Amino acid sequence: MTTTEPAPETTAWWTSAVVYQIYPRSFADSNGDGIGDLGGIRSKLDHLAELGVDVIWLSPIYRSPQADNGYDISDYEDIDPLFGTLEEFDLLLAEVHERGMKLVMDLVVNHTSDEHPWFIESRSSRDSPKRDWYIWRDPMEGHEPNGWTSAFSGPAWTLDPATGQYYLHLFAAKQPDLNWQNPEVRAAVFAMMNRWLDRGVDGFRMDVINFIAKTEAELVGESVQPSMGPQIHDYLREMHREVFAGRDTELITVGEMPGVTVEDAALFTGADREELDMVFQFEHVGLDHSDAGKFDNLAFDLVALKTSLARWQTGLASSGWNSLYFGNHDQPRSVSRFGDDACFRYESATLLAAILHLHRGTPYIYQGDEIGMTNAGFTTIEQYKDIESVNHYSEVVAGGADPAIVLEQMAFRSRDNARTPVQWTPGPQAGFTHAEPWIEVNLNADTINVQTDRAAADRSIFEFYRGLIALRHELAVVALGEFALLEPEHPTLYAFTRTLGSDRLLVVGNWSSEQLRLPQGLTDDAGTRLIGNYPEWDMQTLEPWEVRVYSRAERSGT
Ligand code: GLC
Ligand code: CA
């Protein structure tokens, strides 16, 4: 097959689609309780339609005690009253569809809440018919069965005194892991998924889905953790058969997979394998902190980032598909982490957007990134709400760490950086709520907000994103073109081409706050500039955080 004939899998609709992630509790509050909700989302759908995104992914809105902001589900069949009702969900879904967009639900089935009736039944006795729906083990010499640790600090096992056994939770004690080896568990999950698809949802983002298959211990950083078992492929194929078969071409499935390698990803996403459309990998967001812990910040290295992303581009070029992201609800704000949010916020936010969106894969925009929202700027522990951050702080401070240093690390790394309310307007609570918000609004909301950004004429980040999304919709080379990294060793230049038949795009970006002299000949014969973040430009020089996209063939379409 030549490069001009894309492989059949690359012609799926989602190759030219852009996904927008909503973290509902921080998006928009319609009923004045300080927590974002479905009414808030409904009131902002035009914002998303105008941006041009094709798919909306909602972080969990199911019934939940909210120990991990909804990633701890106690009823998969209902909407949490914090967010609304099933009736309101149906309205939202209809309004999304009316605007030509699709809606994807978060699927959290590695674990449930400990308040889910399945777990309540399971823990009730050793003979419970649902005992084996979770992972119970006898104590080992009076201690945990093994040394696995929870992602949210402490051991991954909690003793249930009533029955004298430990249950496994790779996350909080309030998030017991389901036992996927049990066929009844799988059948119950698949039936639930089918009900949501029958209701009209357009797919799933599957939370830590590679964790459902567990085998023996593996060393991860300083702790010993279960590794991904080979049964994962069987489970995903069974899911495909039981849930997606016959309707998968209209849907989109993306599996979140911490630790996944590009070789694994080619298997998970290979078109003929009937597993998933794409996965979220973590390699490129793990380069700036040590394996020992995500709060342990290392210097950022652009060469390492480029090398990693390019490996994924190549590794999934002939079979499989990439998902592209720089931020989400678990990561710091991308402009604060990778860009210069103090001196070149517009320039660096738009550069990051252009570089990401012009890779081959499906781009994901996290709420607020379309206006360049920044890290939270929290300075006291009381401001933090995230279970991971709060537990981490208690654990390391109890172990003797200097609280000031821990807070400094958290200001850079905490998940709450991305969870402050979306800034809609200048003024009280940034237009997010009329009440006290569940988490503080960023102090910069009067200058950074949707209203101000969209009015900023030629310096609107929103408008820049709109342009990028339109390019993906219009140009096959953006969706499907072959990727080639240029100047891989250059410490601040991010340059690559995309090629499809006689169409070629050249992307050059200056990943730094200093001017950059372009290597000789790089932009010779580059063609016309399609999009860029400076109104005027010099062929030989890139201004701080300047990015330009050149096209060498006639632009197809209008
Ligand atoms: C995923 C989610 C994260 C959550 C965890 C446990 O990584 O993205 O927010 O805390 O899984 O469900
Ligand atoms: Ca509300």
Description:
The relative contact order is 0.11. The protein is globular and about 75 Å long. It has 15 helices and 22 strands. It starts with 18 loop residues before the first strand and ends in a 7-residue tail after the last strand. The protein has 558 residues and is of the alpha/beta class. α5 runs parallel beside α6 (231-244), α10 runs parallel beside α14 and α11 (387-398) runs antiparallel to α12 (403-413). The protein folds into two domains: 15-112 and 183-459, Glycosidases (TIM Barrel, Alpha-Beta Barrel), CATH 3.20.20; 117-168, Oligo-1,6-glucosidase, domain 2, CATH 3.90.400.10. The model has no long low-confidence stretch (mean pLDDT 94). The strands form six sheets. An eight-stranded parallel β-sheet has the order 13-12-9-5-2-1-15-14, with helices on one face. Strands 16-17-18-22-20 form a five-stranded antiparallel β-sheet. The chain has helices at 38-43, 45-51, 86-98, 117-124, 183-199, 231-244, 262-269, 302-315, 334-337, 345-357, 387-398, 403-413, 450-454, 461-474, 476-480; strands spanning 19-22, 55-58, 62-63, 75-79, 102-107, 136-137, 157-160, 165-168, 203-206, 214-220, 223-228, 252-256, 278-280, 323-324, 362-366, 482-486, 493-500, 503-510, 516-517, 528-532, 541-542, 547-551. α7 links the parallel β12 and β13. The structure holds alpha-D-glucopyranose and calcium ion (CA).
